[in-house]
Design a protein that fits this description.
CATH class: Mainly Alpha
Number of helices: 11
Shape: globular
Main location: membrane
Distance between the termini: 17 Å
Subcellular location: Membrane
Keywords: Hydrolase, Membrane, Metal-binding, Transmembrane, Transmembrane helix, Zinc
Radius of gyration: 19 Å
Order of helices and strands: HHHHHHHHHHH
GO molecular function, one term: hydrolase activity, acting on carbon-nitrogen (but not peptide) bonds, in linear amides
Organism: Nitrosovibrio tenuis
Strand content: under 5%
Helix content: over 70%
């Protein structure tokens, strides 16, 4: 995986820069209601805010209650705390962006999303490779996600937009999580739920691409609004997984504690 990671970084550095499309901010549904421009693209971000708050509330409650057996050690909550905090902040940052879409506001949409994905990667490493490995890498991964967004914005400010590192960090991290799920057993039940999380995320990306086509079906909802809802469901599926899962006993899983 280390060789694959290095290869992906080299590819991002060597291939021609992928610029931000000029038409990126031109969304299909620009209707205003109650004085709110781009009403549905703005208000659909409430789904992220609700899921993020629900996730943070669950993590706090699970510390105080014996009802859930979602974590073997309290330290394992850290990646999920950052993840659900980022999901909640995405609801705020994305709403802010959609009020008046431009690159400077898009930073506050993309930044928490990148951090959330890196926190999920840390969680996967913690639960499937080793507790110490995942937690030690958490600050580095979060920083990497943040740098990928700031690098893109800096390149835009220089007049030569480059999305390469942002794309690699986001989609390679997802690929790595899937590979971990395939080849490293989880210490918990519900390990396969991660595939459903990414199925929802994949559906969200497809809806984003079909923004205009979905909107033209009846002018009820646009693809971008649907993207927000579908991605929020994906985040909720992580919360659902945590609520339902149980720890697996056994020497194999106990051995991960020492890694």
């Amino acid at each position: 995986m280390g060789i694959l990671s290095l290869g992906m970084v080299l590819i991002a550095a060597m291939v021609p820069p992928i610029p931000q499309p000029p038409e990126y901010h031109q969304f299909a549904d620009r209707r205003s209601y109650f004085g709110i421009p781009n009403f549905f693209n703005v208000t659909s971000n409430l789904a992220f805010l609700f899921v993020g708050i629900a996730g943070l509330s669950f993590l706090l409650w699970s510390c105080l209650s014996s009802r859930y057996n979602s974590f073997i050690e309290l330290r394992e909550r850290w990646p999920y705390l950052i993840l659900f905090l980022s999901v909640a902040v995405t609801g705020i940052g994305s709403a802010y962006y959609h009020l008046a879409p431009d690159n400077s506001r898009l930073v506050w949409d993309r930044l928490p999303i990148a951090v959330a994905i890196m926190a999920l990667l840390s969680a996967a490493l913690t639960e499937r490779v080793g507790l110490r490995v995942g937690l030690r890498l958490l600050p580095m991964l979060v920083a990497m996600g943040a740098v990928s967004v700031t690098h893109w914005y800096w390149s835009e400010q220089q007049g030569a937009g480059n999305l390469n590192f942002y794309i690699v960090v986001q989609f390679y991290s997802i690929l790595l999580i899937v590979l971990l799920a395939m080849f490293f057993p989880s210490q918990y039940t519900r390990g396969a739920d991660i595939y459903l999380v990414f199925a929802w995320y994949g559906a969200a990306k497809l809806a984003e691409v079909a923004d205009r086509e979905i909107y033209d079906l009846g002018h009820l909802i646009s693809g971008h609004t649907a993207k927000h809802v579908l991605a929020a469901i994906g985040a909720y599926w992580i919360l659902r997984m945590l609520k339902k899962r149980k720890s697996l006993a056994g020497e194999l899983h106990a051995s991960y504690r020492s890694l």
